Amino acid sequence: MSRAVETSPQTFARVAGWLYLYVIVAGTYGEIFLRDNLVVSGDPTATARSIMAAELPFRISIAIEQSYLACAVAIAVILYHLLKPVSRSLSLMAMFFNFVSIAIEAVAGVSLFAVTFFYGDANYLKAFDPTQLYALAYLCLKSYDYGFGISLLFFGCCLFFYGYLIFKSGYFPKAIGVLLVIAALSYLINSFVLFVAPALAAAIFPIIVLAFIGELSLCLWLIVKGVDVQKWDAHRSAT
Question: Residue 198 and residue 194: Cα distance in Å, rounded?
């Protein structure tokens, strides 16, 4: 009985749903409310003063990001388990795209830690003028933005496979699959615009709302409904 509960797709779905909810809430709070409002676009000096005046919230936003990335690894493994009956190869590919996205974002976080180095009072920093240090710190923030954009490119590919697998599964609503494909396309468009025409990146960024809708719909469905266990078992038996 304990083995049946432990390996139940419904249990996995609930766990993935709550972890996904943490990722969405923590990511939104850390990015928008803790970090973004500290950055003054195009002004390294004003950004430096803002971050130095609120260094703890800035550091907390970095810690939150790394914590939800750890949760994202667990979500990737659980979704592989849930979608494997549809197509083992495609669900495995989706998981690897997800892992690459997580790894890139985690490494990009080093650039955020580097920002605080330039605002320190270490002796070796005295060789630089304060405005130079502020400019270098601002470059680290820009570097993180591009690293995050690269991670979203891979995550967009991941969501495309998730959307397709969910649409074909029969034990998830087809509408969620469609929403995830739309989310994937919004991430891909956002990243390509950032790489090719960065001046338009701010204008195109609101398209991410479509991704938010798709991911939130999957998250809430996993929490509230989970999977149709009978259909999931039927798929697993067939494969």
Answer: 4
- The secondary structure of residue 207, as a DSSP letter, is G
Question: H or E stretch including 134?
Answer: helix 130-169
Tokens 């690293």: give the residue. Answer: 147
Number of domains in the chain: 1
- 18, two tokens: 């709550």
Instruction: Output the pTM of the full model.
Output: 0.89
Q: What is the dihedral of CA 148, 154, 159, 164, to 10 degrees?
A: 170
Report the C-alpha gap between 152 and 121 in whole angstroms.
Answer: 35
Contacts of 51 (CB under 8 A, 6+ apart): 38, 39, 58, 115, 116, 119, 137
Q: What is the mean pLDDT of the chain?
A: 90
**What domain range includes position 39?**
2-238
Q: Is the Cβ–Cβ distance between 230 and 192 less than 8 Å?
A: no
Higher per-residue confidence, 42 vs 71: 71
